[in-house]
Design brief:
Strand content: 15-25%
Low-confidence stretches: none
Distance between the termini: 33 Å
Number of helices: 8
Shape: globular
Mean pLDDT: 89
Helix content: 25-40%
Length: 206
């Protein structure tokens, strides 16, 4: 069974799923399939990869914490039942939630284990009066050495905006549309695995 997995590295991986009204409910379902397929490429277990899951639109909501130690079946069940929120696109709220409630010891994040956040989006940050600039909102995550991977779906995405979230240009994974998304899950999983194995920012590889 392990031979089917793309990645048996140890990591804490959080998905931030876009549930905003710029997509249809059908698109949201495709996003769910993508997330479960990416997760299935990893060895999901408390001693190897732990997953957390957040959905965001006008607000952000935490559905799975690392400490829930879900197995693949339970993880898939939770994802299947995720409600489509609609509303705006508040990356800043998703980033704040990730920094304060996801990548924390209380939520089950492990010290000394690579931390990866995969943010999926088909839109751009809502220009609300209280929106925090992205380069500011992402700082706490960078300080925790969380490696961010952005999955940009469709043509409405503002690449310059996503560039503020990721460290390297190649950490933005552009996908033409929701139909192509599911087929790209293994490709993203292997990219994520490469991110996990590269040395954290600021540290030289020996």
């Amino acid at each position: 069974h392990l031979s089917e997995l793309l990645c048996v590295e140890k990591a804490d991986v959080a998905f931030l799923m876009d549930a905003s009204e710029s997509m249809t409910e059908d698109d949201f379902e495709k996003q769910k399939s993508f997330v479960t397929k990416v997760a299935e490429s990893f060895h999901m277990a408390p001693k190897t990869t732990q997953f957390a899951l957040v959905t965001y639109s006008s607000s952000a909501k935490l559905h799975i914490r690392f400490r829930d130690h879900l197995n693949q079946d339970t993880f898939n069940k939770v994802v299947k039942q995720l409600p489509f929120a609609a509303g705006g696109t508040r990356f800043d709220k998703a980033l704040k939630l990730a920094a304060e409630d996801v990548f924390t010891t209380e939520s089950g994040a492990r010290a000394g284990v690579p931390k990866v956040m995969i943010i999926l989006t088909d839109g751009r940050q809502s220009q609300d009066y209280d929106a925090i600039p992205l380069q500011e909102a992402v700082l706490p995550l960078h300080q925790m050495s969380v490696q961010i991977h952005a999955v940009a779906i469709g043509s409405q995405v503002n690449r310059a905006e996503l560039r503020k979230l990721v460290r390297n240009e190649e950490d933005i994974f552009s996908i033409k549309d929701f139909d192509t998304l599911v087929n790209k899950s293994r490709q993203l999983a292997s990219k994520t695995c490469n991110i996990i194995t590269r040395p954290p920012p600021g540290k030289k590889a020996n």
